[in-house]
Amino acid sequence: MTHLKIERIDTTRLDIDLKQPITMSFGVVRSINVILVRMRDQDGLEGLGEATVLGGPFWGGESAEAVQATIEAYLKPLLLGTKVQGIGALSQNLTRFVRGNAAARNAVETAALDLIGRRSGRSASEILGGAVRSTIPVAWTLSTGSAEGDIEEGERAYAEQGHRRFKLKIRRSSSNEDVARSIRIIEAFRGRAAVIADVNQGWDEVAANRYLPRLQEAGLEGIEQPLPAGDIDAAARLSQRYGIEIIADEALTGPDSAFRIAAKRAATSFGLKPNRDGGPTATQAIAAIAAASGLGIYGGTMLETSLGTIASAHLYATIDELRLGSELFGPLRIVEDIASEPFKLVDGELIVPSGPGLGFSLDEDRVAFLARKANE
Ligand SMILES: [Mg+2]
Question: Which GO terms of type biological process are on file (predicted)?
Answer without folding.
Answer: amino acid catabolic process; peptide metabolic process
